[in-house]
Amino acid sequence: MSESAAIYAYDFAVAPCGSLRLGLAASEVMLRASGALWLEQAGALVVADLHLEKGSSYAARGQLLPPYDTRETLRRLEAEAAALEPRIVILLGDTFHDLKSEARLAGDDAERLRALSRGRTLVWVIGNHDADGPQGLPGEIADELSLAGLTLRHEPRGGLAPGEAAGHLHPAARVRAPRGTVRRRCFVTDGERIVLPAFGAYAGGLNVRDAAFAGLFARPPLAGALGPARVHAIGWRSLAAD
Known about the structure:
Layout: H1 3-8, E1 12-14, E2 20-24, E3 27-31, E4 37-39, E5 44-47, H2 54-60, H3 69-84, E6 88-91, H4 101-104, H5 107-117, E7 121-125, E8 140-142, E9 144-147, E10 150-153, E11 164-166, E12 171-177, E13 180-189, E14 194-195, E15 206-207, E16 222-226, E17 231-234
Parallel strand pairs: 5-6, 6-7, 7-8, 10-11, 11-14, 12-15
Antiparallel strand pairs: 1-2, 2-3, 3-4, 4-5, 9-10, 12-13, 13-14, 13-16, 16-17
């Protein structure tokens, strides 16, 4: 089977907004160029690994980074909420970079998170970086939740897990091209489960050919690489290791 034929064996379509509309287990989802997952039937916006206040965490250890990551991450999240008008926003774990991040959060950024919860449900799924959940911010706290035929959790379970949507691994695609390679954050899916890219400005990415992804997919997965205005479907054979 050719690479293009392998790509189109997946049940997906490019939406006018540049997103990929994808069949996932028994559900239909939309992969957004922002790195958000949109569950239209449920009116749910899902984002993973915001790692808010990562910049200030590094600064506390003497590694100075521009302290604007939280502001930029929340700006992008607000833009998605404004565009989609979700009934529920799901933060899929590691929303804060460490257990003291909420205390370092600027007052106006905390208010932006409060505003995000007004008129809708805000769910904080527990991650390994923020295991105690938010202390002074609104929303529901969950280890995982079931929605629209999917199970949403922070860390993928080992082995096959049809219907799972998770984060934690920060997938990134390194794509072969005639003039070299390009590296982008990405979704990665085999049509049965999906791992979301990190949404946070400073979160980084792990190559999908890393051993951490081995055994998660029933067939060679598809990468949905994030471009400035669209998600690009990339077949497994076009993906290079770092």
